[in-house]
Amino acid sequence: MSSESAWLQKALFALQKAEAAREKLADTRDEDVPPFELPLDDETLSVEEFQEAMENRIHDLLEDVRGRRRTLR
After folding, report:
1. Model-level pTM?
2. Where are the alpha helices (DSSP H) in the chain?
């Protein structure tokens, strides 16, 4: 679980860096930042929604790991 959490944290960090780079590029070109959406079946998922889902999963995993550590003490 802690390794999944670490992997998700790294992926979230990379995604945030990519979004910051997109925004900076748009600023240098004096353009609006186009929406960043991921295709999902017949729908689209915004990157913000995806990031929030990752953050929630990380939080849940860390809480579970902390709970298990408390029971081992």
Report:
1. 0.68
2. 2-28, 47-72
